[in-house]
Amino acid sequence: MLTLYSFGPAANSLKPLLALYEKGLPFTPRFVDPRKFEHHEEWFKKINPRGQVPALDHDGHIITESTVICEYLEDAFPDAPRLRPTDPIKIAEMRVWTKWVDEYFCWCVSTIGWERMIGPMARALSDAEFEEQVKRIPVPEQQVKWRNARKGFPKELLDEEMRKVRVSVDKLEKRLAESEWLAGDDYTLADICNFAIANGMQHGFAEIVNREASPHLLAWIERINQRPAVREMFARSQSEMPARAPAPAA
Amino acid sequence: MLTLYSFGPAANSLKPLLALYEKGLPFTPRFVDPRKFEHHEEWFKKINPRGQVPALDHDGHIITESTVICEYLEDAFPDAPRLRPTDPIKIAEMRVWTKWVDEYFCWCVSTIGWERMIGPMARALSDAEFEEQVKRIPVPEQQVKWRNARKGFPKELLDEEMRKVRVSVDKLEKRLAESEWLAGDDYTLADICNFAIANGMQHGFAEIVNREASPHLLAWIERINQRPAVREMFARSQSEMPARAPAPAA
Questions:
Q1: HEC string of A115-153?
Q2: Beta carbons of A75 and B91 less than 8 Å apart
Q3: How far, in Å, are A16, B64, B157 from residue B91 at the CA level?
């Protein structure tokens, strides 16, 4: 039995969520509500002591880290539709792209996202409420990030992150101008993991992701949004997301 | 035919180098001399446009990124001794460790290493010589890192990186107190990729990696150093490293 704990179909949570839909694997989605800080609650920290989503429960075994969960699904369900090439050279190409999104692309987009969304959320809390929440965050670096988001990130940092967002968009645009999918001819985890971060940038970063500046990137985002698995993921999540994840027995 | 371009048996270069020795795969080692900035020379940028080692040439196909090269060797040479478990759950455990070293552990150790070694190297150059070298670095972030190293990193940053080094050492020590190898019962790429960064810390970070503070980590470092493949790697590299990599035909 598969249960996926996630924030729903966006950012890192989208990666294993979409992989599950693409592979057609039956699973129980468990929405963890970031607005209620559910990922820092004790019941969830029993599942992932780092207090981070997504996390996959497969027959009681917990797999963490969004990209690793995607790879795990490839290894554990070899008969489901493949999202990883078979040729070792193509696998390596795919891996360079999934590694890049985890080490570069996701961080710069994330900082801007935190400034826009987490900052106001943190400032809506009183000092005491905020400290109460921060105390429950198990990863020290995440505590620091929450404090910085509440204060507002320094302009210098935001400018540097925006520069990296532009570098990332250029890199994706250049690649997608020469190839239909990131790792070559086939739709793979390289596309899913980068789509997780890029989807929505046509709205949130419309000044750099648009028909004129990055036509191939935009076409790729639209192409992925047309896939049956993606449509199913968004449609189902719409109806399932409001459901609160019940606390599992300890 | 396999050719590995590397800085020799340390840091990220050590990962695929040791994997090749452990797997018993015949290959041609090509030492790229960092003191001569060979990785930023045109001939090498034709191999890896990012100007970074290690890079593997397998029958003319170039594979980059140290961890990806290690995974590639597992995929491309399934009959050689395995360094990746077969159980999907164990593979995921291994991957969380190889991901962690790439995203956290290697960076904090690297900044301290740059402060100690690259800083003095950069300051030994005249302003003009330094600018000449920086101009040839293809990755903008690397240019910034060289400039910062030459100036000397701010104390605040070095303190923060040293805090992360301590967090890393504690994490490794805790894990190795309960398990012989990082991903469980078997020696895997989790050990190789972390050893690449941890080996030498018993000298360079002796105040935190020693018999009293981190006995299990130290024992693990010593245990790996006793492996025949590791001894062969260090012995051979000693004799081969001074050889300069010849520029391949363009």
A1: HHHHHHHHHCCCHHHHHHHHHCCCCHHHHHHHHHHHHCC
A2: yes
A3: 17, 21, 34
Which residue's structure tokens are 């996959």? A56
Q: How far is B167 from chain A (nearest CA, A)?
A: 10
Binned at pLDDT 50, 70 and 90, residue A246 comes out as: very low
Q: List Cα–Cα distances, A71 to A56, A82, B84, in angstroms.
A: 12, 11, 13
Which residues of chain B are within 8 Å of residue A67 when distances are taken between CB atoms?
Answer: 99
Q: Which residues contact A94 (CB under 8 A, 6 or more apart)?
A: A84, A85, A182, A183, A188, A189, A190
User: Exposure of A12 by Cβ count < 10 A (0-12 exposed, 13-18 middle, 19+ buried)?
Assistant: buried
Q: What would the DSSP string read from start to end of A143-191?
A: HHHHHHHHH---HHHHHHHHHHHHHHHHHHHHHHHH-SBTTBSS--HHH
Q: B166 in contact with A at a CB cutoff of 8 Å?
A: no
**Which of B91, B103, B167 is the closest to A103 by Cβ?**
B103
> Which segments in chain B show pLDDT lower than 50?
243-250
CA B204 to mean position of chain CA atoms:
15
- What's the mean pLDDT in A162-169? 97
User: Which residues of A are less than 8 Å from B69 in CB distance?
Assistant: 92
Answer yes or no: is pLDDT of A249 > 70: no
- A72 vs B: CB within 8 A: yes
CATH number for domain B2-83+233-240, candidates 2.60.40.420, 3.40.30.10, 3.90.25.10, 2.30.30.100: 3.40.30.10
Tokens of B25: 């795969």
- Which ranges in chain B are annotated with CATH 1.20.1050.10? 88-226
Q: Residue A238 has what pLDDT?
A: 81
CB contact, 8 Å: A75 with chain B? yes
- Short-list B13, B147, B144, B133, CA closest to B70: B13
C-alpha to C-alpha distance for B181 and B12, rounded to whole angstroms: 19
Domain(s) labelled CATH 3.40.30.10 in chain B stretch across 2-83+233-240
pTM: 0.94
Name the band, by pLDDT with cuts 50, 70 and 90, for residue A67: very high
Instruction: Report which residue type is found at B80.
Output: A
A143, A122 Cβ separation under 8 angstroms: no
Cβ of residue A19 closer than 8 Å to a chain B Cβ? no
CATH T-level assignment (fold) for domain A88-226: Glutathione S-transferase Yfyf (Class Pi); Chain A, domain 2 (1.20.1050)
Cα–Cα distance measured from residue B119 to residue B150, given in angstroms and rounded to the nearest whole number: 5
Please give the residue of chain B at the shortest CA–CA distance from A94: B68
> Is residue A80 over pLDDT 50?
yes
Given a contact cutoff of 8 angstroms between Cβ atoms, the answer to whether A175 and A166 are in contact is no
- Distance, CA of B117 to CA of B41 (rounded, Å): 21
